[in-house]
Amino acid sequence: MSGMKKQVLLSKKSANIIAISALLILSSYYYSTAQNVKSFTNGSVKLYYEEYGKGPALYILSGGPGEAPEHPYLQIIDSLKSFYTCVLLHQRGSGRSKDLPINETTITINNYLQDIEQLRKKRGDKKVTLLGVSWGGLLVMNYAVLYPAFVSELVLVCSAPPSYKVWNVLYDNQYARRSAAELDSMNMLQKIFSTKTEKELDSLKRADPLSKEVVAYKAFIAIHIRAMYYDRIKISQQNFETLFTNFNFQPIPYIDKEVMETKWDITNELKKLKIPALIVYGRQDDQGESTFYLQKESLRFSETHVIEQCGHEILEEQPTAFFKILMPYLKKKRKI
Question: pLDDT digit string (tens) for 19-29?
Fold first, then answer.
């Protein structure tokens, strides 16, 4: 056998071994994930969560509302599961908890908060650490206001604001970051997909992903998320595809409406808390630094860290910097 033929055969054999190993790893991962999925109910609504690791409970609340709790939340779990029991909630209207009617009755801030409380009761946790990303940070703060006796500490990662007063800063900053060409494109694309409701679009993007409405909707969302990054080169196409497919955008308008119409504001209640908090955000987060100044001002026992050259998507743009902040903080709290 010639050296070249032998090398080719060895390469094929190695490739097969690698492929089989990869399949085994993936099978093991999905099996493990399925094994760790549990459920509970809040009234007539069935909700799901995942559970990993050992130690005191740490609840992870994803963004949105409507974001499926997938990557990058698994990065957080992998980093913390050796000294926390990481509980990843699939919030109502997202992930495995997606199948419920989306309307003004089901999608309210209080319903989300009561879901967390029912989860705590289901698990029997006397105290929990709450880690919230973006919209999840809003829930973390509000839960602590309602149930301070059950909260050990808070971790706010690029969190939404605690008051309606700076709610629209996000939209103003996003508008300011877009070029005239991007704004024109968004207006044109919106005319194409606005013939469908959010519910219809959510169904259509899986049933007929090449329909003109879904193609336009996807292009619109792609432009939308660019304003959330400091460095647009770091936008992962694979992550975007997953986000677009699995993100349920339906709950967002209901929460926006509730926040503004009720003048939702928990800043005064937060000032009464004695719960320690870690606040982490990117300097170029599209929510604006006024959002994070307000969090710091409201949470008197907080520690704030700013990550430079970073937008809203911290775990995509600056994961190393983020974990260098998160890990020492939580290990110090656990006295590890």
Answer: 333 333 333 33
The answer to whether residues 68 and 14 belong to one domain is no
Q: Where are the beta strands (DSSP E) in the chain?
A: 37-42, 45-53, 57-61, 85-90, 128-133, 151-157, 277-282, 302-307
Q: How far apart, in whole angstroms, are the C-alpha atoms of residue 156 and residue 154? A: 6
| Residue numbers of the domain that contains 313 | 43-168+254-334
Neighbours of 15 (CB within 10 A): 10
Q: Which of 43, 137, 48 is nearest to 94 (CA)?
A: 48
Taking 60 as the threshold, does the pLDDT of residue 3 lie above it? Answer: no
d(CA 306, CA 282): 6
Same domain assignment for residues 71 and 156? yes
Residue 295 lies in a domain: yes
One domain for residues 161 and 75: yes
Q: How many domains does the chain have?
A: 2
Per-residue pLDDT tens for 121-161? 999 999 999 999 999 999 999 999 999 999 999 999 999 99
Report the chain's mean pLDDT, rounded to a whole number.
Answer: 89
CA dist., res. 150 & res. 261, Å (int) = 30
30 and 98 co-located in one domain: no
Residues 15 and 161 in one domain: no
User: pTM to 2 decimals?
Assistant: 0.88
Distance CA 311, CA 297 (A): 21
Burial class (CB in 10 A: 0-12, 13-18, 19+), 296: middle
3-state secondary structure at position 108: coil
Whether residue 20 is found in the same domain as residue 164 = no
CB 102 within 8 A of CB 111: no
Reported confidence tier of residue 90, pLDDT bands at 50, 70, 90: very high
Domain membership flag for residue 153:
yes
Q: Would you place residue 239 in the very low, low, confident or very high pLDDT band (cuts 50, 70, 90)?
A: confident
Say whether both 33 and 139 belong to one domain: no
Residue 269 φ/ψ, nearest 5 degrees: -70, -35
CA distance 45 to 88: 17
Judge if 9 and 68 occupy the same domain: no
